[in-house]
Amino acid sequence: MENNVEQILVHHLTAFGNNDLDAIVEDYTETSVLFTPKGIVTGLDNIRQFFVEFFAVIPTGSAFGMDQKLIDGNVAYILWNSDSDLAQIPVGTDTFVFEGDKIKYHTVADYRIAK
Fold this sequence. Notes:
Layout: H1 2-17, H2 21-26, E1 28-36, E2 39-42, H3 44-57, E3 63-72, E4 75-83, E5 87-99, E6 102-114
Parallel strand pairs: 1-6
Antiparallel strand pairs: 1-2, 3-4, 4-5, 5-6
């Protein structure tokens, strides 16, 4: 299971780095749940819109550092940082729960300093 989770996570992170909305949405289903500081996001269209807004702050080419990546069974956790022209994010964290080859639950939070 961990190998499959690793593959899906790498796909997700690569798509994120490339700001590839179509590839990002491939990792979710209509019933996936994204927990954010602004509330719960469900449905592929709403998940896509969440990433449209996130990519506006961290566009392709922004500095991104992976501080920690942990996987246990079908759960993955990442701790990261980023710096773009619009914001400095000294700490960001995501937790993913996978079901099959999709992200079923995803939490995301970051400390964002606007520039």
